[in-house]
């Protein structure tokens, strides 16, 4: 998300109104519901994590221990167990 200068996009009377509530402060204006995007929609992260989690589950199913998986993927054993549980429930 990049910042825009209010004076470049808003009419002056709206800027004055906003200044009544927060003079010089930062505010976040959320997207309209119909324009919201789900997490990871703009990047490959969601796809990457999904593939990683399937890989972890397959290795676990083949006999690799939670401890080894945690070390291999730089995650906690609790995170590995959560991924395994999630993968078991999705199949």
Automatic annotation (TrEMBL):
Organism this protein belongs to: Clostridium diolis
SUPFAM superfamilies documented for this protein: Homeodomain-like
Protein name: Mor transcription activator domain-containing protein
Residue ranges occupied by any Mor transcription activator domain in the UniProt entry: 14-90
A Pfam match: Mor
UniProt-listed InterPro entries: c-mor_Regulatory_Protein (IPR052411), Homeodomain-like_sf (IPR009057), Mor_transcription_activator (IPR014875), YraL-like (IPR049739)
Species lineage: Bacteria, Bacillati, Bacillota, Clostridia, Eubacteriales
Domain of life assignment: Bacteria
């Amino acid at each position: 998300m990049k910042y825009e200068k209010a004076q470049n996009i808003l009419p002056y009377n709206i800027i004055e109104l906003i200044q009544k509530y927060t003079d010089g402060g930062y505010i976040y204006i959320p997207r309209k519901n119909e324009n919201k995007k789900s997490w990871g929609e703009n990047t490959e992260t969601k796809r990457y994590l999904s593939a990683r989690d399937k890989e972890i589950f397959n290795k676990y199913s083949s006999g690799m221990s939670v401890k080894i998986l945690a070390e291999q993927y730089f995650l906690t054993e609790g995170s590995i167990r959560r991924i395994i549980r999630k993968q078991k429930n999705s199949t």
